[in-house]
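Quick question, first post here. What does this chain look like in 3D?
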Amino acid sequence: MGKSSNKKKKIYQNVAKIKLNNKPSLKWRLINKESNFFDRVFEENLMSFQKMSLNENDYSLEKENHLETKIVHVVKKLKRKKKKKKIKIRGRKKKSIIKGRRKYNCS
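> Answer (accepted):
Ran it through. Tokens below.
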């Protein structure tokens, strides 16, 4: 009798092991839950990043336009200053050249 009871225990244990093997283990269920969670988090972060980048692109486009207008304005100012300097320099050179010729002609 002892032998038959041992056999029944083994059969039940084998059936229990097979059922456990067929079911996903707790470890794998947790891993799947975590992976699903991280997938969702990643998608949410990606969506929020895309929204932010769109906002930044709009803002950066406005900034770039503003910077371009500033640069154009500054370049125009510099060109005006250069023109004024050239006019002043030309006038001085002509005067000095004329003075030098007069001195040369006189002596």
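The mean pLDDT is 69.
The helical segments are 2-22, 26-106.
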